[in-house]
C-alpha cells in the first residue's frame, strides 16, 4: 500500500448569494491517502489549475451543518500528468485535461469521466508546438465553450455581421471575439475597466469596445454598431445587459446564452424587462452548455491549434500565478475583475 502526502485547499466556509467572498472561505491542509488503484481508477499529478466563475457556486447557499460540499477539496478544471493508471486509454505519462480535478497536488480519479488525453507527447512536447497552458485557455474548456457554441447554434459568424460580446476580455468572451473576427464579422466588446477596453482594441483587435461600468451601454451600442443594430449578441452576463442588447438586436437575430455573471454577484434574480422582444423581433435564443459538446475537443485542437501556432490567431493573455498557496487570493481578485484573459495557478512543473 503506497501512501501519498497531498497538499490541498478545501472549502472552509460557505457564502450567501451576492455576499463578498474572501480568502477566509478557503483552508489549506496536508493529508495522506492510499494511492493503490482499483480497476478504472487514474492517479494524476496536477500541473495547472484553471480559475473559473463556476468555482464560486460550490460555496454558495451551503448550510454549514449539512452541506456535502464544505470541507471538500475545491473542484477545478486543469492540466495534469497521469502518474498511475488502471485504465488503458490513459497510460502513465500522458498529459490530460481534467474537468474533475481539484485545488491539490494529486487527484485520484475514480473513472475517466470528463478526462481527455491532450495531443501532447511527453518526449516531443505539444504536437501543435504550443505552450501547455493554451490547453487551459483557447484549447481548453473556455475555447471549447465558444467554438462548440457557434458550431452548434448559428454554425458560423458571417462576414460583416455585427456581433456584440459581453465580458469580452475574459477567456470565453475573448475566444468568441477572435472567432467572430476570424470569420469576418464586425465585433463590439464590453468589459469592466479601461485597461480591459485597451486590451480588446489593441491586443485582440476588436472593431469597437466600451467600459460598461463608466459608459452608458445604450449610447455606446447605438454609436458603435453600424446603423445601431446587432445581428448576434453573445451573452455571458445576463441581467440588464441582456435587456439592453435586445433593444439593439435586428429582427430575426440571435442570442447565444452562455453565462450569467451578473446574477452570480446579485442577491435577487433579475427579471428581464424586454422579454416581449423575443416575440416581436422573432429572436432566436440558443442556450448552450459545453458539457453537452465534449466530443468537439479534437475538432477544436485540429482547427484552432495550427492557427495559434502560425500566428494567424492571436493568443489571448495568460496569467500564471505560481504555487497552490496563491490560489485563494488570486481567485478572490479574479472574481473582483482584476484580471483579463485567462488566469491559472501553476501547481507543479512537468
Ligand atoms: N455555458 C457554458 O458551458 C460555459 C462554460 C464556461 C464558462 N461559461 C460562462 O461564460 C462566462 C465567461 O466565462 P470566463 O471563464 O471567460 O469568465 P471570465 O470572463 O474570466 O469571468 C470573470 C469576469 O467576469 C466579469 N464579471 C464579474 N462580475 C460581473 C458582473 N456582475 N457583471 C458583468 N460581468 C462581470 C469580470 O469582467 P469585467 O471586469 O469585464 O466585468 C470578470 O473579470 C461566465 O458567465 C461563465 O460562467 C459558460
From TrEMBL:
CDD domains: PGDH. Gene3D superfamilies: Medium-chain alcohol dehydrogenases, catalytic domain (3.90.180.10), NAD(P)-binding Rossmann-like Domain (3.40.50.720). Residues 171-303 form the Alcohol dehydrogenase-like C-terminal domain. Residues 22-113 form the Oxidoreductase N-terminal domain. It comes from the Eukaryota. The keyword Oxidoreductase applies. It holds the Pfam family ADH_N_2. The keyword Oxidoreductase applies. Keywords: Oxidoreductase. One of its GO terms (molecular function) is oxidoreductase activity, acting on the CH-CH group of donors, NAD or NADP as acceptor. This is Enoyl reductase (ER) domain-containing protein. It comes from Modicella reniformis. The lineage of its organism: Eukaryota, Fungi, Fungi incertae sedis, Mucoromycota, Mortierellomycotina.
Amino acid at each position: 500500500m503506497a501512501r501519498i502526502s497531498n497538499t490541498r485547499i478545501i472549502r472552509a466556509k460557505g457564502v450567501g448569494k451576492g455576499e463578498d467572498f474572501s480568502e477566509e472561505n478557503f483552508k489549506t491542509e496536508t493529508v495522506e491517502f492510499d494511492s493503490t488503484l482499483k480497476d478504472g481508477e487514474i492517479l494524476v499529478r496536477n500541473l495547472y489549475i484553471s480559475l473559473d466563475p463556476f468555482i464560486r457556486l460550490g460555496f454558495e447557499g451551503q448550510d454549514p451543518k449539512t452541506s456535502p460540499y464544505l470541507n471538500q477539496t475545491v473542484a477545478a478544471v486543469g492540466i495534469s500528468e497521469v502518474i498511475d493508471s488502471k485504465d488503458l486509454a490513459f497510460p502513465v505519462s500522458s498529459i490530460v485535461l481534467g474537468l474533475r480535478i481539484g485545488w491539490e497536488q494529486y487527484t485520484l480519479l475514480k473513472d475517466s469521466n470528463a478526462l481527455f488525453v491532450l495531443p501532447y507527447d511527453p518526449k516531443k512536447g505539444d504536437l501543435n508546438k504550443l505552450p501547455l497552458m493554451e490547453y487551459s485557455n483557447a484549447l481548453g474548456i473556455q475555447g471549447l465553450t465558444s467554438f462548440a457554441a457557434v458550431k452548434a447554434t448559428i454554425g458560423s459568424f458571417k462576414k460583416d455581421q455585427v456581433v456584440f460580446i459581453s465580458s469580452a476580455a475574459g477567456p470565453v468572451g475573448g475566444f468568441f471575439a477572435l472567432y467572430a473576427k476570424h470569420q469576418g464579422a464586425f465585433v463590439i466588446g464590453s468589459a469592466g475597466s479601461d485597461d480591459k477596453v485597451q486590451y480588446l482594441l489593441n491586443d485582440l483587435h476588436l472593431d469597437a469596445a466600451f467600459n460598461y461600468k463608466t459608459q452608458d451601454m445604450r449610447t455606446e451600442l447605438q454609436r458603435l454598431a453600424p446603423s445601431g443594430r446587432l445581428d448576434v449578441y453573445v451573452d455571458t452576463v445576463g441581467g440588464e445587459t441582456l435587456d439592453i442588447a435586445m433593444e439593439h438586436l435586428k429582427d430575426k437575430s440571435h442570442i447565444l446564452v452562455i453565462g450569467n455573471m451578473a446574477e452570480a454577484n446579485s442577491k435577487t434574480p433579475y427579471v428581464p424587462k424586454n422579454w416581449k422582444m423575443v416575440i416581436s423581433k422573432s429572436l432566436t435564443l440558443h442556450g448552450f452548455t459545453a458539457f453537452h459538446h465534449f466530443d468537439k475537443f479534437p475538432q477544436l485542437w485540429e482547427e484552432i491549434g495550427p492557427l495559434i501556432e502560425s500566428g494567424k490567431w492571436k493568443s489571448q493573455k495568460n496569467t500564471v500565478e505560481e504555487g497552490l498557496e496563491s490560489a485563494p487570493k488570486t481567485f478572490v481578485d479574479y472574481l473582483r475583475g482584476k484580471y483579463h484573459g485567462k488566469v491559472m495557478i501553476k501547481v507543479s512543473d512537468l
